[in-house]
Amino acid sequence: MFSQKNALEAAEKLYGDDIKEADFTIIQPYANGQGMILRVGDDENGERATKLDTIDTLTILPTIDATLDIYEEEAQDDDAE
What is the pTM of this model? Predict the structure, then answer.
């Protein structure tokens, strides 16, 4: 079963101390096209917010081995470090 606590613990492993500022999304697929999507980030007022959606028509496509154009600069910066 989906646990918001487990999802946040998994994100904490990925982001470490940056979890308090990072915007992130966690998707938990279930059988029959169902799923849960947890989004964490700043809301329109600049305050941290958590949103949990339950979906009954979730489709997850295979990963594409490429970087989206809007993130290319970030990927290049990470490679330089």
Answer: 0.71
